[in-house]
Amino acid sequence: MSLAPASPLASPLLAGALFVLSSSLLTTYTTTSFLSHPGVRGSSLPAPGAKSPLSPPSPLSPLSSPLSSLGRPLLITLYRYAGSLLLSLLSLSPRASPARLSGTLPPLFVPALSLFGANLFNNFSLAEMGISNTYTTKCLIPVLTLLLSLLAPSSDPLPPFPALLSLLPVSLGVFLSSSTSPSFSRRGFLFALLSCLGQVSLNVSSKRAMRLSSLLPAGPIGGLECQLNLVLLGLLFALLKAAHSLVSQAPPAPRPPPPPSLGAAAAAAYHVEYSLSFLYLSLVSPLTFSVTDAVRRLAIILAGQAFFPGKEARLGKENAAGMLLALGGVLSYSFFSRAKGQ
Fold it and tell me: Which domain holds residue 229?
């Protein structure tokens, strides 16, 4: 992504701060509000995983809409991708030609599928066990990356021994935090692990895709253009999943969808967060980005506690200690793995 030299967003400090703030404040608030919104007839927000009592639908009820038969995690995924695609097209209209897309889409198919899985399962986990448990569990991404590299050896060297040791506090921290949390859910934990696997696959496949894109006749893919390709493919995957849910499976119990304005807000927040993510990644080293991402997770957990005190279980001493231990392990892993050029 190219920026004019005079652009204030070319400052890594400002771009990183905006990335963390947009993710922890805008995305956290809009996503959790969307997932827990009771619908047009509700008056209070249920706790994560709680069922919202609904009166029988009337003939003109929003329950008659196909959207009411889609689960909230899939519905917000559709909103996010559709809204981000529209905003990307508006900002990249000169380069978003069919000829250009036909050349840039194929290398990004696997990264887009990985991103779709990471986002969808992350939303499922948030709906099941809330913000704190979900984002603490996602500290296991380095552990799963190591396991994947051991199961499928590649030419990339393993991290140095100190970095491998730092994965122990990550695992212990996740276990301590999860085992002491009253809102912990096995299903939610499984969804968070699947989201981690999607993120690991995204990290690996996107590096390969970027190498392939440098060989394209029209030139490499920029940050915003990459986002356009990912959300376009992601929207196609989400639509296929929605069609499968409506036709081939028993849909979940009908529930009035949130107002479209909340879906639009969630989509805008998602687009801003990922745009800033691509921008910040282009300005700093991988180590700096990894450290910032760990700080972002902590900010998301704290924002969830502040925004939704009635829905997010209060952090106990053991729970908070486990979160800090896991986040500290991630910071240590990032430092030692990059110190040797990993």
Answer: 66-339
| Residue numbers of the chain with a pLDDT score lower than 50 | 1-6, 42-64, 341-342
pLDDT of residue 294: 80
Within-domain flag for 146: yes
Please indicate, yes or no, if residue 1 is contained in any of the structural domains: no
Question: In this predicted structure, what is the pLDDT of residue 223?
Answer: 66
Q: Helix, strand, coil shares of the chain as percentages rounded to 5?
A: 75, 0, 25
Distances (CA, A) of 36 to 175, 262, 312: 26, 11, 11
Return the pLDDT at 4: 42
Q: Which of 145, 121, 125 is nearest to 134 (CA)?
A: 125
- pLDDT at site 279: 84
Q: What is the DSSP letter of 342?
A: -
Which residue matches tokens 């380069």? 95
Total domain count for the chain? 1
In whole angstroms, give the CA distance from residue 242 to residue 125.
18
Residue 178 placed within a domain: yes
Task: Give this prediction's pTM.
Answer: 0.79
